[in-house]
Amino acid sequence: MAFELPDLPYAYDALAPYMSAETLEFHHDKHHQAYVTKGNEMLAGTDWEGKALEDIVRHAGANDQGLLNQVGQHYNHIHFWNWMKPNGGGTSLPGALQSAIDSDLGGYDKFKADFMAAGATQFGSGWCWLAVKDGKLEIMKTANGDNPLTHGAAPILGCDVWEHSYYIDYRNARPKYLEAFVDNMINWEYVAEMYEAATA
Ligand code: MN3
């Protein structure tokens, strides 16, 4: 079964003014679709065709950077659409996740500052992350299509800092985009679901 582009979980204009319909149309319909198409082409006829996406990402991370560019980005974007929601963000987090951010990361304000700094200092294209490694939360950043799965960790929140994710709405002001992502777009319920799965 080849990978397919999932529908956005909300309307194209649902995240405006923080992320425009124009950005989501290009980002979802063109960029994510291209990762799906190229990933399927590279997997066709190989032993990895039909395997679980997470397993393919880990394999590609260790063995095939060209494949990782495509399948890593497919994994990243499936979750990225769900890591955002209309009227998201804010400081009211599901209980277990809030406790872990307090104990592992020094509280919400430090999480926000460190997460934004990771995104702002990722040189070139990539992602900043909140991930679970060895049972504890960590802030990470990765280049291009890479993600925490290839570093022995489980991503529970990621922000796409490729220019295609913010240039239409923020031009070169990546920190403004990161702040809007944290303050106005994060779907903390979905983050909490992934946290529970990663720590179960
Ligand atoms: Mn992207």
Would you give the CATH topology of the largest domain? minor pseudopilin epsh fold
Q: Multimeric state of these chains?
A: single chain
Structural class: mainly alpha
Overall pLDDT level: 97
Description:
The protein is mainly alpha-helical. The chain folds into 2 domains: 21-82, Orthogonal Bundle (Helix Hairpins); 95-199, minor pseudopilin epsh fold, CATH 3.55.40.20. The chain contains 8 helices and 3 strands. It has helices at residues 21-43, 53-63, 65-82, 95-105, 108-121, 167-170, 174-185, 188-199; strands at residues 126-133, 136-143, 154-160. A 3-stranded antiparallel sheet has the order 2-1-3. β1 and β2 form a beta hairpin. α5 (108-121) runs antiparallel to α7. The longest helix has 23 residues, at 21-43. The radius of gyration is 16 Å and the shape is globular. The two termini are 28 Å apart. Bound molecules: manganese (III) ion.
